Amino acid sequence: MPDNLIAPASAIFDLPTIRAELFESFPKDAKEAEIRKLTVAKLAQARDVGRKVIAEALASEPFGARRTTRAYTWLTDGMVRLTFEVATKRLHKLNNPTEGERLSVIAVGGYGRGEMAPFSDVDLLFLTPYKITAWAESVIESMLYMQWDLKMKVGHSSRTVKDCLRLGGEDMTIRTAMLEHRHLTGDAPLAEELNQRLLNDLFTGTEREFVEAKLAERDARHEKQGQRYMVEPNIKEGKGGLRDLQSLYWIAKYVHHTDDISELVQLGVFHPDENEKFVQAARFLWAARCHLHLAAGRPVEQLSFDMQVEVADRMGYTDKPGRRGVEWFMQDYFRHATAVGDLTRIFLTSLEADHKKAPPLLERLFKRKPRVKSGFKVVNGRLAIADDTAFLNDNRNILGLFGEALRTGLLIHPDAMRLVTANLDLINDDMRNDKEAQKQFLDLLLKHGNPERALRRMNELGVLSAFIPEFAPIVAMMQFNMYHHYTVDEHTIQVIQHLANIERGEVGEELPVSTEIIEGGINRKVMYVALLLHDIGKGRDEDHSILGAKIARKVAPRLGLKPKEAATVEWLVRHHLVMSDMAQKRDIADPRTVRDFAKVVKTVERLDLLCVLTVCDIRGVGPDTWNNWKASLIRALYRQTRRALEDGMEALNRENRGAEAKKLLRERLPDWPTAALRKEAGRHYPPYWQGFHITAHLVFAELLRDISDDEIKIDIHPDEDRDATRVCFAIADHPGIFSRLTGALALVGANIVDARTFTTKDGYATAAFWIQDSDEAPYEASRIPRLKDMIRKTLMGEVVAREAIKSKDKLKKRERAFKVPTSITFDNDGSEIYTIIEVDTRDRPGLLYDLARTLADSNVYIASAVIATYGEQVVDTFYVKDMFGLKFYSESKQRTLETRLRAAITAGVKLANS
Question: What is the dihedral of CA 281, 286, 292, 293, to 10 degrees?
Fold first, then answer.
């Protein structure tokens, strides 16, 4: 029995004992069905014991991955061998088998390699010398019935040696599976014949074909699974995952005929430290996969948010100040994924050198090598170092390598990357403070138009963290939330890429304001350095904007910025969230919002820089985070603030804006009688005129015209500029109207992104809600009639929102792992008329309705609500007055309201998790 398992082999599956007990349990004259039943019962019992032993051993040694995968293999081997023995010695015994009645059972694929997770598939090849006989067919059938009854996920094929060679020649998946074959039981000489024939007749001489096919498979897999740093990675198929490690293993075995990756060190393919990286990455990924299977109780490969928490806990990761255990676990995951990428690159280069892999496509297309600066050369279409010793004599050459790669457009040769990685200690304080090195680094950002290429490679090789040590803590740092799609370092590089895209004029139509700012001229050095450092303070137990600004104060001068430039970078890092917060969490129709923001930025130069930084930052969060809604908010805040800074704060005066809005209304309604126009212009209070755009003023004018007291008028139209559907209500005003409207919209599954309501002088509520469907898109025209009907029924009292909403107000399982602390603040300075209540908490479908209902029940008048969603976190901001039209200045009233809101949130969360 093997002695290298996570627990003693005899405790997992005592093959001799179980075999003896099994055969003794068979009655002499038992029928096939009874024997199968007894076999399944005995093996199922042994399987359950074995699984329990392995799981307990892994729990006490969470990183014992390799010995765990071998343990699951040993357990599976025992069941396969005994089902074969029962089938051949008891069910279909042959006393004098012919030459053709030989059968060999062979494990293939991952099972053949001896690497099994708790719920891995069992791939079997039933090998016969010639066409399958009736006896072999019966044996295979009986084995499979028993294995299926044992709930084994068996993939099987029955072939001759000739079939294997033919099919392996035609199909690369079959060839790969047979590359990892392992004889389990049955005819051994037949298995050995297959082994020799595969090596001599199929594998030898087809190395290049195999390597190209595996690399094409890998590229297709990465295309499908997404970038390495996606926050819910597929541990098996994702970039830098187990399948990539297995591809290295397959290619090594096919090309170098070795099962042992450490032999690649003797062959000169890997350095010893690189081999250690391979061992550690395999250990970590296999351990995580085993824990993932056990936690889910089934073969799950996606490290979804809820599973990340469970696996991190099983592997012994704990919370530390500023960061959760799951974030430390995922940081390790991404570091190992990066290591797998490095190993793959190194291995492929060695294959190119041996001509087992074709050189890159670009080199084959352009045979003429580009001219490179002295000290460099082109090898296989990649930028290489001409003389290692000379290169290392001047540590600034390390930055020069990345600059030359950007200048020529060449990929860097992995041998050059290895040399850099092995000599990171050359990047010292002298180099960091060297003016020439500082200039080289800034040139990487500013000179070539695609700085993200250099930064990403420098980050992967450790150069970025060596040159800016303060960057190291955020490398591969995962933020455990549904908002951020990338690790912090990858997000930073994405943000810089978005700025480069704007500079290249690629998004002028989509981002007119940012493009206009860039074309008008800004300090590019300040902009790029601010983006590079904007999140550098993350992961500590302190506000990352404040800590980041302190770090920027030290780093910016070290990157060659003048004192005034460094001060601007520090200011931008400190305030990099202010514009986004103001635009998304405050009512920008309120003049005080713009006034307060203008006081923070003070100058048009800072406003321009902050606007571009904000746009790039939001776009760098994830593929779909930026949308027209956010664009319209940022654009409006920028334009109004610029106007205030250039023309003075009087430009924001309510009366001016009200007069302009009324004038525009008259122009747009030329057919209306003068009396009707006068009535419409006079029925609204001043905040109404600045709170809505002219398009809404026109809609409300029509809705209110000839409205009766008991009438509910609704207008639903797409607001294409904002990626939302606008729902306008005109209805007789009464207490709690806002919460009723919110409930009606929640009931139809609408996601409210903005809402405001005003009361007319003659007692009507004019309310506008901007809503999106569950995909954060405007409602399709075909769904609007049903939407309208459902809203009307709820408002008429035919449907009770509070009861009907319960079934919709549920959290998905993968989302329950997130903890969002609730914070409630009262602000009496942010608006002239209203108290601003900001509720920052865990998002769920019925939250806004619960909050609005609680406020209504407390006799609070809600004028508007601004909703900003960040993944699982939401900030609901209410502009409110008390029943006498006054602000909430009293601390006791504020405390009472806060207590009630917290109680509503707690009750809602409990219900949503039930």
Answer: 160
Residue 837 backbone phi and psi in degrees, to 5 = -105, 120
Type of residue numbered 541 = D
Quick: pLDDT tens for 57-106: 999 999 999 999 999 999 999 999 999 999 999 999 988 888 889 999 99
Give residue 457's identity as a one-letter amino acid code. Answer: R
Place of tokens 């405050």: 586
Report the candidate in 61, 46, 60 with the shortest Cα–Cα distance to residue 11: 46
| 727 backbone dihedrals φ, ψ, rounded to 5° | -110, 120
Compare 352 and 32 and report the one with higher pLDDT. Answer: 32
CB neighbour list of residue 75: distance below 8 Å, 6 or more residues apart: 12, 13, 47, 50, 51, 54
Sign of the torsion angle spanned by Cα atoms 496, 497, 498, 503:
positive
Contact 275, 341 (CB under 8 A): no
Q: Which residue intervals of 620-767 are DSSP H helices? A: 628-647, 654-668, 674-682, 686-691, 694-704, 737-747
Cβ pair 542, 549 in contact under 8 A: no
Q: Tell me which residue of 605, 618, 610 sits closest to 637, measured CA to CA.
A: 610
Annotate 265-292 with DSSP letters as a single string: HHTTSS-HHHHHHHHHHHHHHHHHHHHH
Structure tokens at 910: 């409990």
Q: pLDDT per residue over 622-644, tens digit each?
A: 877 888 889 989 999 999 999 99
What would the DSSP string read from start to end of 554-566? HHHHHTT--HHHH
Q: Which of 508, 512, 470, 513 is nearest to 492 (CA)?
A: 470
Entry pTM = 0.84
111-167 pLDDT tens trace = 999 999 999 999 999 999 999 999 999 999 999 999 999 999 999 999 999 999 999
Strand ranges of the sheet holding 724-732, from the earlier edge strand across to the other edge: 712-719, 724-732, 764-772, 751-759, 861-870, 873-881, 835-842, 823-827
Least Cα distance to 824 among 840, 844, 802 occurs for 840
**Burial profile 371-399: b = 16 or more Cβ within 10 angstroms, e = fewer:** ebeeebebbbbbbbbeeeeebbeebbbbb
> Alpha-carbon distance 148 to 142, whole Å?
10
